[in-house]
Write a structure and sequence with these properties.
By secondary structure, the chain is of the alpha+beta class. It is 23% helix and 39% strand. Strands 7, 8, 9, 10, 11, 12, 13, 14, 15, 16 and 17 form an eleven-stranded mixed beta sheet that branches. A six-stranded antiparallel beta sheet has the order 3-2-1-4-5-6. The N and C termini lie far apart (51 Å). 48% of the residues are buried.
Length: 444
């Protein structure tokens, strides 16, 4: 970890007082990935890098520049570039302010077990998964990535925030004939991932999916497993829970705060302080993180703000500042859907006759964001269920559904949930349960 160097160089730039306000955001990470296909390793990669963003304010003009080194000479050049950019920008229609100092919660995101996990150890664990699957004629593909990194925010208002983290992500796809199975796991602590169990579950799902049948288009009762639900939550977050979309009127929550938008058994929130997901004490502007509900018992409650979108409305940031220069605006990074009280078996039994869906892919949530119309394909196992028991596997189906309307038809929510990566940033996650939904529409 390079805490002292990161903070020292950031403070040097900030203390230059070259602009009315200066902010330095640093992200540094070391990552190691092993990839496998056909039950054999085919690639190992080690990546190490730093990105430093410098944002300046001159009056109401803002300039942003970035550099991929912590060397002082390059940082000074980056500062000059940011100043030049600000000088050529139009003034913002509102007063722009950086975050002010505030206390942060004590969050543990760094685990030595993950940071020091050797490639040899990880290869040995994955290899054991290959051997177990090969006895059933199953081939496995996927990857295992571990990362150790640090983020820091320093600005002229006195913010001096630093946080180290680790992450581990295993993805396992099993295949035999035209059938596939999938399982993944993510955690801050690699020791919490049972690699053999994950790969074994992937293989079992593949065996269950052998000899799939065709199924006609139509509306079906469905039980969505967490991987499928996480895709829908990710898209709902992307198109609806950010202040930029809300202010532009493209969010399905625009003009609807305080109204009922889903069934009463739906609560979707962001909580970067929860140890159940990937955690962080502050955002990329140094604003403290806190729990915020976007939909609470079916009622639309809030959207996510950073300092800029908040300033335009005269309100406060909710702690959702992204890396400087990102065009999407503030978005939730730690999404949770509140769990219910049913076990997996109880939900399957309650499904009666319908479809059990393991996961979705190629989901497109941009068809009509205001109506949350989405389409995508089922993947890695879809099963026809009769009287609460799996009858046979089904070939992939395409769905076309208004997700908010579908969330008005949720009958049951599982008491257990699974964590998935979100946005591709190691400190971002989606934690999703199983859902039982009546009348989910498939077009073929």
């Amino acid at each position: 970890m390079l805490k002292d160097k990161i903070l020292g160089e950031s403070e040097y730039i900030v203390n230059s007082r070259a602009a009315d306000s200066i902010e330095v955001v640093t992200h540094r990470e070391d990552a190691s990935t092993i990839r496998f296909a056909n039950s054999a390793f085919h690639q190992g990669a080690v990546e190490s890098g730093s990105t430093v963003y410098i944002r300046v304010i001159i009056g109401r003009k803002v300039g942003i520049a970035s550099v991929n080194t912590l060397e002082r000479g390059a940082l000074k050049e980056c500062l000059h570039e940011a100043l030049s950019i600000a000088g050529n920008m139009k003034e913002e229609p509102f007063e722009v302010r950086f975050t002010r100092p505030a206390p942060y919660n004590d969050i543990r995101s760094y685990f030595e077990e993950t940071a020091k996990a050797s490639s040899a150890e990880l290869v040995s664990l994955v290899s054991s998964g290959f051997r177990k699957a090969s006895s059933s004629g199953i081939l496995q593909a996927g990857s295992l990535t571990t990362a150790a990194g640090e983020i820091a925010v320093v600005n002229t208002n006195g913010v001096r925030a630093y946080h180290p983290y680790t992450s581990a992500f295993l993805s396992s796809v099993s295949s035999k004939g035209e059938a596939t199975g999938f399982k993944c796991a993510t955690s801050k602590n690699i020791s919490e991932i049972d690699i053999g169990r994950v790969m074994g579950a992937s293989a079992e799902s593949c065996l269950l999916a052998q000899s799939p049948r065709d199924l006609k288009a139509g509306s079906y009762r469905v039980m969505l497993e967490p991987p499928a639900v996480s895709e829908l939550l990710h898209w709902l977050s992307y198109i609806g829970f950010g202040a930029k979309n809300y202010q532009e009127g493209t969010s399905f929550l625009s003009g609807r705060l305080g109204e009922k938008v889903t069934g009463g058994n739906v609560t979707i929130y962001d909580d970067a302080l929860s140890p159940l997901g990937m955690a962080a004490p502050f955002d990329m502007e140094g604003a403290p993180k806190r729990r915020i509900a976007f939909i609470e018992k079916g009622i639309a409650r809030a959207v996510a703000y950073d300092s800029f979108t908040a300033s335009s409305e005269g309100t406060e940031s909710t702690g959702h500042g992204a890396f400087p220069g990102e065009n999407e605006g503030p978005l939730p990074d730690h999404i949770f859907m509140e769990c219910g009280d049913k076990t997996y078996g109880e939900m399957l039994e309650s499904l009666g006759t319908g479809l059990l869906i393991k996961s979705f892919h190629y989901v497109n949530g941009l068809l009509s964001p205001r109506e949350t119309l989405m389409t995508g394909m089922t993947r890695h196992g879809t099963f026809y269920v009769k009287d609460g028991k799996i009858e046979y596997p089904v070939r992939p189906l395409r769905f076309m559904e208004n997700i908010i309307k579908a969330f008005n038809r949720i009958e049951l929510v599982s008491k257990d949930a699974q964590v998935f990566p979100n946005h591709g940033f190691p400190l971002s996650s989606v934690t999703a349960p199983c859902l039982l939904i009546n009348g989910f529409r498939f077009t073929g």
